[in-house]
Amino acid sequence: xxxxxxxxxxxxxxxxxxxxxxxxxxxxxxxxxxxxxxxxxxxxxxxxxxxxxxxxxxxxxxxxxxxxxxxxxxxxxxxxxxxxxxxxxxxxxxxxxxxxxxxxxx
Amino acid sequence: xxxxxxxxxxxxxxxxxxxxxxxxxxxxxxxxxxxxxxxxxxxxxxxxxxxxxxxxxxxxxxxxxxxxxxxxxxxxxxxxxxxxxxxxxxxxxxxxxxxxxxxxxx
DNA sequence: GTGTAATACATCGTAACACGAGGTATCGTT
DNA sequence: AACGATACCTCGTGTTACGATGTATTACAC
Lengths: 106, 106
Hints:
Chain A has four helices and three strands, in the order H-E-H-H-E-E-H.
C-alpha cells in the first residue's frame, strides 16, 4: 500500500488499537497487522508523538524481566478519533470527485 | 483538513482534474477548490512529478500573450486512478478498524 | 497613466513524517 | 551454546506539501 495514503490514518489507527484496552508497542503492531502494516521504528515515533500531544499516557510495567510500556488513550486521543471521522467525510467527497464519471456512457 | 490525510490523494486528484479534458495549472486549482485546496507551489510540484512518472504529457500553448501549459493524461495516468480505487478499498477496511465499536453498548 | 487584482508560470528552503538499518537486552526452545 | 521471539530505542534518509518569493502580462478602476 502506498506510503502517502497511509500517512493520514496511521496516528488514528494506533489510537484505535489502544482504545478498547491499554496495549504496548509490540502488541499494537501485531494487532494492526491484518489491517495495516507498520515498522517498529514508525510505531515508536508515532507513540512518542501522540504522547507529546497528550493523546495517550504511558505506564511502565515489569513483565517477565522485560520492560513493557503500556499506552492508555486520553480524552484528547478519543477526540482525535472523532475528529478523524469528520475528516473522513471530506475524504469521501474527494473520492467521489476522483472516481466520478463525467458522461453516462462509460 | 489535515495535510497528512491529503497526501495520498492529491496526485490522483490532479489526474482526475485533467481526465475529462486537458487543463492547465491555474484552472486545475480552481476546479479542485470546492473539493480540496492546494497551493500553487504544491500543484506545480505535483505536475512535474506526474510528468516525470509519465502519467501526463505537457503541451505549451500561447494564450493572450501568456504561456499556458496544458496537461494531458496518459494511459499510465488513467491506470494510476484505477489502482487508487483498489487502494481505497484497503483504506475503507482500515477505516472500519478505526471506527469499530468493540461492544454493543456504546 | 498609475495602481491593483487576476492570470499564469516557477524556485527555494523548511518541517513533518515513514522507514530501513542498526543497537540493546531478556526469555524460551533446541 | 545458538537462535528466534519478545521488547525497547536511535539515527539518517528520502518524499512531500507549503509558504515565501519572483517574473510577466492583461484588464479594470480611479
